[in-house]
Amino acid sequence: MGEIVNLRQVRKQKARAEKEKLAGENRALHGRSKAEKTRDRLTSDKAENFVASHRRERPEDQGD
Q: Where is this region: Disordered (predicted)?
């Protein structure tokens, strides 16, 4: 015979695990020092500017 499982307890365990996962993500995202946040923002801005400066755009002055 199979093992008897209390579905209510399984649901609660699953909810707790999901909350713990979300809490871990929030700790990683919000639990950083000001220097770390600044470094990440500058790195992101630098990468964005690099891509923007190498983008090929069509000239808008040409008439069809």
A: 1-64
